[in-house]
Amino acid sequence: MTKTNIYIYIISDSVGETAAKIAQASIAQYLNVNITLVRRTFITEKDELLRALKDADDHDAIVIHTLTSDQFVHIANEYCGEHNLFCMDLMSPIMNEIYRRSGEQPSRVAGALHSLNQNYFNRINAMEFAVKYDDGKDPKGFLEADIVLLGVSRTSKTPLSLFLANKNLKVANLPLVPQAHIPKQLWEVDPKKIVGLTNDPIILNKIRQERMKAYGLDPNTSYSNLDKIQEELEFANDLYRQLGCIVINVADLSIEETAAIILKELKLEDRSYYA
Amino acid sequence: MTKTNIYIYIISDSVGETAAKIAQASIAQYLNVNITLVRRTFITEKDELLRALKDADDHDAIVIHTLTSDQFVHIANEYCGEHNLFCMDLMSPIMNEIYRRSGEQPSRVAGALHSLNQNYFNRINAMEFAVKYDDGKDPKGFLEADIVLLGVSRTSKTPLSLFLANKNLKVANLPLVPQAHIPKQLWEVDPKKIVGLTNDPIILNKIRQERMKAYGLDPNTSYSNLDKIQEELEFANDLYRQLGCIVINVADLSIEETAAIILKELKLEDRSYYA
């Protein structure tokens, strides 16, 4: 760990989520550097903005801002220029370029990304849908879903469903257990909407042993038995072949990565926006 | 709607989530401009990168890239410079500045933000926790949760729980109905972890009428009755006072905004990172 302590100030008139993401992506590249992230969000008054900038200056911080009002952007950029503060203005460059090309004025509404429009309510519905139709709770969900996820235990079905729901997609999932009853509705779903999740047997074995330990149980139960896992995976793969759906091995993938692959493969990228 | 059609190309060696967020925040400012978002993600080969850049050039696109390899950043920035393409490099400025200050080399691992570390698995657990302890399903969850959300019907408890779970926080929620049994565990929870959600009666009335209509039912049932709603809200507010928890009126707030307020008030911002 180096001695340097670096401050990054997120300054925003809204949630500051976008700026935080950039900061976090950068921090993830420097695991040995001490970095303190400070958020000054929902700034609506000029005084508040100046106070945040002054604090950032006191810490010789890296400033990342997402400000939508012309005046606030101007104040922040001027202040950082005068005080020799490193400043990244995330909103203006793209906004100005769109303005230059279209001649349209931006709405300059802070947090426009989070406005309570139809898209927003669809997303909320998608999240409630994911909880309602998680874990094969109700097979009727398959017919209404944008995506149906299938997979044996510990292939991230639930977190993946929730992550995709947050992107405005209705997801139902079904855990696969050999000899389990496969609901008839599944055969009525367009295979292009179905995703079969699979994993490496060795990894599943390890994950399941850990899980048993966490429960204070014997790690070598049939749940974590390698032959048993192999059998489950074969059952799942057979079903995927019969259904004709895509198959993704989640072994080395985070849910963000798996989600991105699903959106690409199912051609749902365009429907996956927040706003 | 203006005739201009503007292309924004997201080019990334990982999910491209950060760049997409910037693009979407900008698009949200220009509702009357036709903007097409194209994603070229998980780029690992130089050829792929050059193809994506060529396509962007063919569409005279605005390019936003998150690339971590030195070589790819260099290729992208050079190409855009030579072809006079508008280009926003999101990763390099902050990464270079951290390097300048710390003297440390970045790991240059693509998708480092999504690495499968302990933090990642904690987040997956948090998502499963949210589903398990949604809707007061099991009061034991209250004692283990980082945040306990309380609220009458239609105050966004479920989506809010899921959104916060995605930020690595364990959330349990309890719907409030007058005269309902309040689980004894709730009184054992530190009030600083509890959030009481409330809403404006008129808005709740409207939301609930819509919900009844969506179900094909009479919109003027007792569920949407204004006196009934008032009574429910009073019951909830009384409970919040007794518990001594913070209260948030979600009337004009998106879940992102409510979540940001909760993190600020409960001083959980520092724990809410992805990586």
From TrEMBL, chains A, B:
HAMAP family documented for this protein: PDRP
Enumerate the GO terms in the molecular function aspect: ADP binding; ATP binding; phosphotransferase activity, phosphate group as acceptor; protein serine/threonine kinase activity
Q: Does the keyword tRNA processing apply?
A: no
What reaction(s) does this enzyme catalyze?
N(tele)-phospho-L-histidyl/O-phospho-L-threonyl-[pyruvate, phosphate dikinase] + phosphate + H(+) = N(tele)-phospho-L-histidyl/L-threonyl-[pyruvate, phosphate dikinase] + diphosphate; N(tele)-phospho-L-histidyl/L-threonyl-[pyruvate, phosphate dikinase] + ADP = N(tele)-phospho-L-histidyl/O-phospho-L-threonyl-[pyruvate, phosphate dikinase] + AMP + H(+)
Tell me the organism.
Vagococcus humatus
Assigned EC number: 2.7.11.32, 2.7.4.27
The protein's enzyme class: transferase
Record's keyword terms, sorted: Kinase, Nucleotide-binding, Pyruvate, Serine/threonine-protein kinase, Transferase
Sorted alphabetically, which InterPro entries does this protein's record hold?
Answer: Kinase-pyrophosphorylase, PPDK_reg
Q: Report the sequence similarity comment from the record.
A: Belongs to the pyruvate, phosphate/water dikinase regulatory protein family. PDRP subfamily.
Q: Which residues bind ADP?
A: 151-158
Any idea what job this protein has?
Bifunctional serine/threonine kinase and phosphorylase involved in the regulation of the pyruvate, phosphate dikinase (PPDK) by catalyzing its phosphorylation/dephosphorylation.
Tell me the domain of life. Answer: Bacteria
Q: Does the keyword Iron apply?
A: no
Q: What is this protein called?
A: Putative pyruvate, phosphate dikinase regulatory protein
